[in-house]
Design a protein that fits this description.
The protein has 22 helices and 23 strands. By secondary structure, the protein is α/β, with parallel strands linked by helices. The chain folds into three domains: 318 residues, Rossmann fold, CATH 3.40.50.2030; 168 residues, 2-Layer Sandwich (Bifunctional carbon monoxide dehydrogenase/acetyl-coa synthase(codh/acs), Chain M, domain 3); 227 residues, 3-Layer(aba) Sandwich (Bifunctional carbon monoxide dehydrogenase/acetyl-coa synthase(codh/acs), Chain M, domain 5). The chain has a six-stranded parallel β-sheet with strand order 3-2-1-4-5-6, sandwiched between helices. Strand 18 and strand 19 form a beta hairpin. Helix 1 runs parallel beside helix 4 and helix 3 runs antiparallel to helix 4. The longest helix has 29 residues. The protein starts with a helix and ends in an 11-residue tail after the last helix. The chain binds iron/sulfur cluster and zinc ion. The site of zinc ion has 7 residues, from helix 5.
């Protein structure tokens, strides 16, 4: 442990705690101690205080207590005579620093200094945390990098983040070096920065780096099922992060204003000490003193003097990340970081589908001899013959052959086309089947991206992801109007046959359900039981998906589980399933009902698409999706609800569900099914509308759809009840739900 670092970190902590106290006092003088203080849309109060102190900060007065605690953690700045080569004081100062930074950042939300402006995004709300969390869970995202500072040249900054994006590493940015921040460099180079592109600029001050750590703290609480509060919880959360959230800090550039002619300012050292508490090591391009292994981080704590060209690979080694890099022969960068990227109209070269032209994608199984592996055909115009700004028809037909391939897998593979294509930088892809919408950006076109490159992407990814079942792949890309018009009709025929097949499949038709334990990497006791009529709560895994996934990787997260004796057909309980979940939940669960939310319901890991909760006043249930940030009739926002039910525990009355389950004939059938739905968010109601209407019609209760209230009718139970009484909602006449 270097003394220089300890001195700098402790000195930095003193300074930041001092600054936080001054700002807090100013805020209290102005607003009073009772004035509320919070971050937007989170159920975790100020997460750093909640984690380390078990403190639920809600008003300015509470922060005085936080500051007292921070001061207790501050060690004296070591003098020359009294120097112990001991990391503890530095780490405690790191925690004090984080408390100070959380205070400073939270105070910004009082209004004076809006932290969300220009390129800066400020605090990450819980709904985004969940969305990104599943990417950490399923391995699409191997970890995150928190970048502090800037590079010498803008082009180095672009190269660095492109390298991280290609490796699917989430990038947080905070702080600056000599007044310049990497996010500003990227903005100058027109790099799109937001949650969809995995490039997240938190704020220009170093204090905004605390948002990366409160993100990590909440990940552990959300997905790890760890209750915050005592010091042991803090230890568990830190261990959890060290083991499961593969993150590191990248400090770039030398600060001219650094104290004692060191290369980095004291407040950066102090913040680094805070990150080391989470087991997140620091990697720097300038030669600051190193801290080698002592046990907190998995490997070294601080390594420095690393050249920019090597910094990513050194960081990966340092943190032990597993990275899959797809090498695909296309002229644009490729990686999950680009998946959510949009191509705006001004930046578009050409587009396909949407409301402009016919476009579709279809994956079909063919006999071995009809598929020539690696063949790509463009039938119609290539991009060189297309005019800038125009819309063209597009048919993407993927033909696969494999000894173990089954027709049932077609739709599973086809659904991945969206993700595969979206990961190319400068390509936008939305929708599936015959409702796709694709754009190629001017930049991608300038780099030489062609229609045939869609084929290259699909060949590479299909082989990579499905090597167990796919031996040969060929791709046909149609851009000829008449051909596309004809083929789209044939494709529609195939889609509807498939729908009949899975849609028509019932839980009674099969002897085996599938488990999914993918989320155990985050929620160690959580198990999803996926049945034909109830998909995984994340919405990403249907029974067929699990079946395919099991065949592709028999030792993977999905296993068939024989149902065995049926113990209760109405609630959906089977003997073998109970035995299975008892083992897989490490003894935490004994019984499970597939169709009930009141009695032994399914547990939730944290990445549910929606939450269904009972509204006792209305004798029914409401369903809220994770994009809805408003208030619900149970008096809780999605974030608050999610905080209560995540982490792999059963919470009667509340259940995490996938959107498709809402229109399933088995939707909480133990409690009476869809007739119980009294409230849904407007957006969700629209989204699942067609399927839900069809199911209601099947049950002969078509009029129910219009009786389901949304936030436009009510956001509290009293107004909701009045509304339901007025329109005569059937839930009011049903037997008491509790
Ligand atoms: Fe996680 Fe369940 Fe989805 Fe599997 S099905 S990824 S366990 S939420
Ligand atoms: Zn999950």
């Amino acid at each position: 442990m270097s003394k220089i670092i300890a001195t700098a970190a402790i000195r930095g902590a003193h300074k930041l705690v001092g600054q936080a106290e001054v700002e807090l006092q100013k805020a209290i003088d102005k607003y009073g101690k009772e004035h509320p203080v919070d971050y937007p849309n989170t159920a975790y109060y100020l997460p750093i205080m909640y984690l380390f102190l078990g403190q639920k900060v809600q008003k300015l007065g509470d922060l005085e207590e936080s500051m007292q605690e921070a001061k207790k953690l501050l060690a004296d700045i070591p003098s020359d005579e009294l120097w112990l080569p001991y990391l503890g004081d530095t780490l405690d100062s790191g925690v004090a620093t984080l408390i100070a930074e959380e205070t400073i950042e939270a105070l910004k939300y009082l209004g004076e200094q809006n932290p969300v402006q220009g390129i800066w995004l400020g605090f990450t709300p819980d709904n985004i945390l969940r969305l990104q969390g599943i990417k950490l869970v399923d391995g699409r995202m191997p970890g995150f990098a928190a970048i502090v500072g800037c590079t010498k040249k803008n082009e180095d900054a672009v190269k660095l983040v492109r390298g991280l994006q290609e490796r699917n590493i989430l990038v947080f940015m905070a702080g600056h070096t000599n007044g310049r921040a990497i996010a500003e460099q990227l903005a100058e180079e027109n790099i799109e920065m937001n949650w969809d592109t995995f490039l997240v600029p938190y704020g220009k001050e170093i204090t905004a780096a605390v948002h990366a750590l409160n993100f990590a703290a909440r990940s552990a609480m959300t997905f790890g099922g760890i209750e915050p509060g005592d010091m042991d919880a803090a230890r568990k959360i830190l261990l959890y992060n060290k083991d499961r959230v593969h993150a590191f800090v990248m400090a770039l550039g030398a600060d001219k204003a650094a104290e004692d002619s060191q290369l980095i300012t004291d407040d950066k050292y102090a913040t680094a000490a805070g990150a080391i508490n989470f087991g997140f090591p620091v990697i720097a391009d300038v030669k600051i003193p190193q801290i080698l292994p002592t046990g907190i981080c998995t490997y070294e704590h601080v390594i420095s003097g690393i050249r920019l060209e090597e910094i990513i690979s050194r960081a990966i080694e340092l943190r032990g990340l597993t990275i899959k890099i797809e090498k695909i022969p296309i002229p644009v960068p490729y990686g999950a970081g680009f998946e959510g990227e949009r191509v705006r109209k001004e930046n578009m070269y050409v587009q396909f589908g949407g409301k402009y032209t016919d476009a579709f994608e279809l994956l079909r199984m063919k006999p071995m001899e009809e598929v020539e592996d690696g063949k790509i055909e463009v039938i119609g115009q290539e991009i060189d013959e297309m005019k800038e700004g125009e819309a063209y028809p597009l048919g993407i037909v993927v033909e696969v052959a494999g000894r173990d391939f089954q027709e049932d897998f077609e739709s599973v593979l086809e659904r991945r086309i969206h993700e595969f294509i979206s990961c190319a930088n400068g390509i936008f892809h939305m929708g599936q089947r015959n409702i796709i919408w694709v754009r190629i950006s001017k930049e991608a076109h300038a780099k030489g991206f062609k229609i045939k490159h869609f084929g290259e992407i699909l060949l590479a990814r299909m082989h990579e992801e499905f090597s167990k079942i796919v031996d040969r792949v060929q791709v046909k890309l149609y851009t000829e109007k008449e051909k596309v018009a004809k083929l789209i009709e044939e494709a529609k025929e195939v889609y509807s046959q498939r729908d009949d097949k899975i849609g028509g499949m019932t839980d009674e038709d099969v002897d085996e359900y599938y488990s999914c334990t993918l989320c155990q990497s985050y929620a160690p006791n959580h198990v999803c039981i996926v049945t034909p009529q109830r998909l995984g709560l994340c919405g990403a895994y249907t029974w067929l998906d699990c079946k395919a996934s099991h065949q592709i990787d028999p030792h993977g997260p999905n296993e068939p589980v024989a149902k065995g004796e049926c113990l209760d057909p109405v609630k959906g309980m089977w003997k073998n399933i109970n035995d299975y979940i008892e083992v897989k939940s490490n003894g935490n669960l004994k019984r499970f009902n597939a169709y009930s939310m009141m009695e032994d319901p399914m547990t939730s890991c944290g990445c549910f698409e929606c939450i269904a909760a009972i509204v006792p006043e209305a004798n029914g249930v409401m369903i809220v999706d994770r994009d809805y940030t408003g208030m619900t009739p149970v008096g809780m926002t999605f974030s608050t609800l999610a905080g209560q039910i995540g982490g792999g525990v059963q919470t009667p009355g509340f259940v995490g569900i996938g959107k498709l389950y809402i229109s399933s004939p088995k939707f909480i059938s133990a409690e009476g099914g869809q007739k119980r739905i009294v409230w849904m968010t407007k957006q969700l109601k629209e989204e699942v509308g067609d399927r839900l209407k069809a199911e209601l019609e099947r049950q002969g209760i078509s009029d129910l759809f219009d009786k389901i209230a949304t936030e436009e009718e009510a956001e509290d139970p009293e107004t909701l009840l009045q509304y339901l009484e007025k329109i005569g909602h059937p839930a009011l006449q049903m037997e008491a739900i509790m």
